[in-house]
Write the structure tokens for this entry.
Amino acid sequence: MSQRTFSIIKPDAIRKGHAGAILADIEKAGFKIVAIKKLSITKPQAEGFYYVHRERPFFGSLTEFMSSGPIMALVLEKDNAIADLRKLMGATNPANAEEGTIRKKYASSIEENAIHGSDAEDTAKFEIGYFFAGHEMV
Ligand code: CMP
């Protein structure tokens, strides 16, 4: 069944000029781009987005990194979008990512790992709503 997920092309990938290649990989994998915007977020905005990770030791550094430069926020749609995007992204740590995945190709570390994708339906809903209003999705 058609499903929506949320994704961020992270500051490391934007800085290195990989945004276009990542968007091409996403489209080639059959995702429809329902919404897209390039923006910068503040550290408090990154903290709100990653609220579930607030107790983790990497929370400060992660939210610092995510507010260190422009990102691209995306809403993507296809059958099985949440699981399929995570497969296309590869493992969180690029050292463990499979050949051909976005993180294998473009990520440099477990933190600067090029792309985020929602991990479940409820988080996808929260994350889409954090960045987009209904009228921005087409
Ligand atoms: P993401 O899919 O955006 O979800 C949470 C992010 O936290 C993750 O990608 C990584 O960028 C980061 N992360 C997860 N585990 C670690 C870790 N052990 N050290 C540093 N950053 C991490």
Remarks:
- Residues 11 and 65 are 7 Å apart (CA to CA).
- The pocket of adenosine-3',5'-cyclic-monophosphate is lined by residues 53, 58, 62, 92, 110-111, 113, 116 (CB under 6 Å).
- The beta strands are 2-9, 32-39, 71-79, 115-117.
- The domain at 2-133 is CATH 3.30.70.141 (Alpha-Beta Plaits).
